[in-house]
Amino acid sequence: MDYKAYIAQKLNIDGMSTEEVASAIAVPPDSTMGDYALPCFKFAKLMRKSPVMIADALQSDFVCDDVINEVSAVNGYLNFRINKAGLARDVLARIGAEGEKYGSSDMGAGRVICIDYSSINIAKPFHIGHLSTTVLGGALYRIYNFLGYKAVGINHLGDYGTQFGKLISAYKKWGNREEVEKGGIHAINDLYVRFNNEADEAMEAEAREYFRLIENGDKEANELFDWFKSLTLAYVQTIYERLHIRFDSYAGERFYTDKMAPVVEELKEKGLLKESNGAQIVDLEPYGMPPCLILRSDGASLYATRDLAAAIYRKKTYDFYKCLYVVAYQQNLHFKQFFKVLDLMGYAWAKDLVHVAYGMVSLEDGSMSTRKGKVVWLEDVLTRCVEKARAILEEKNPALENKDKVAEIVGVGAVMFGALYNNKIKDITFSYDKALNFDGETSVYVQYTCARAASVLAKAQAEGVAFANAPAGEPCEEEFALLKALADFPDTVREAAEKYEPSFIARYAVDCAKLFNKFYFDCKIMQAEPAVREFRLAITRATLTTLTNALTLLGIGVPEKM
Ligand code: ARG
Question: What's the gap in Å between 119 CA and the centre of ligand 1?
């Protein structure tokens, strides 16, 4: 039941759409005032009356019913009290019927959302700096699919550039096949780091030559490049599996090699290309930005050139409704620039490109450093967190079965939740201890709450207490607060998509878990008299379903026992 829409419809205010009125209705911070409130000053201009008079008039016209039990006008606010038993009945029935689909919708039917995320660089470490783009993008991918959109996950691989010439040069000098085969991405990265530390001018020249050879389709150079690429992808795949991340396309920068010339041509035709010190640029000074570099003076393309070609290709291929780029805020200017260039080229869809920017993640112990070779690999963070989770589980619940499996779910979830809990633009410092706190605002807390709910349900089943068809009772305060939160889940998912903020769902999960725990401790479940016990079991099951759906959308697993 969408109460806001229901109230708005009943109010039927002249000159305002139901949607407008519904969006003006809020949940008062203090529930003693009511469950919903409409601030009437918003209509003062339209109705040419004072908010107090409007509230009084709306109140006297409002006829209460089975859904809205009470309405009062206080200081220009119209407060509504809903039928609590009705809400309980509604929400429990809905969650029971929809199960793992609860919170989903078909609002996005027929619309494609491209999401460019993770977008790692070939032969470079998959490090802690990639955590946010990977898990935020993965969450958005699931959220949009859940809302009926067709999400297309794109890993815009960084597989183009002179660094691959350097890598070949380093491999030829210091590497051997066996070692690289064995060491994989780490061995490749070591070679690259060594080049940056030790290469002399002769090697630099050689590297440029190798890059040229790759570009010109030289067989050996391309075989080496493809080998490095496949080793990198095989490695990141293992991490993506642990994070429950998937992609529909790995079309990276190289994929656009033959798609850039037409774009450059088009820019020229549209009179947008200018020469500047031998380079080709698009002047963005009128828009308060430095120029967008299209071709270097030696004719080489740039990062922006490939992004222009990629955006045009994606529009043609997917006809997206929106195309999201989940990339750190350090690249704000880059996105503003190439979005503007597409706009100047006359593409109306340039307004559908969205840079979903996020802040930095650093580690509490030994912050991330990009100095040569000194990066924190994401894999190491995951391993360490899983080990710590394993130790905590061992201590808290020595009899737990499948400890390794549970530790993997808990540990990996904790790292992911670390990047998902705060507003995405914030810089965050990851702390293993905080992330694994059973009583904190953590995934562990939510997972533990789920395990608690599951164990209550298991107990009921063991004792043969059936509750599937339990009639909803008149909820007490704790029950009502929880039920109302459960009813808010679909709205939360929708808002998370609208604002590109998976953190809304993460916060929701923590808040809802808190309400469940208050309910669990203040209301006896199994010891209550039969009718109340069954109602409470139904609430418990609905909570487990909703929290599981929330964590699943974030890509985080839910162990049955903890
Ligand atoms: N590979 C790039 C980097 O590591 C990120 C690419 C983001 N996507 C894009 N279309 N520019 O900085």
Answer: 5
